[in-house]
Amino acid sequence: MHMHRPLNCEQDAIFDETGLYLRCSMHGFIFDPKTGECQSPVCFGQRLQSLRLEEIDGTLYFAEKHLTLID
Ligand code: FES
Hints:
Elements: E1 22-23, E2 30-31, E3 53-56, E4 59-62
Antiparallel strand pairs: 1-2, 3-4
């Protein structure tokens, strides 16, 4: 499963070639950007933690005051 690394840690992109899925450049696993669910067979059914954001005047802010980090 995805480790604590930026999705673009190896390449300067966070989406796959289709632009539909997030792709981690470390191991190439792909994730549904809306649900965070892994679409790669090796981790199918597991998911990234989603965070709700709000855009205000072109700047993104975390919408939740309390975040829980999951290992
Ligand atoms: S570190 Fe992201 S899939 Fe392995």
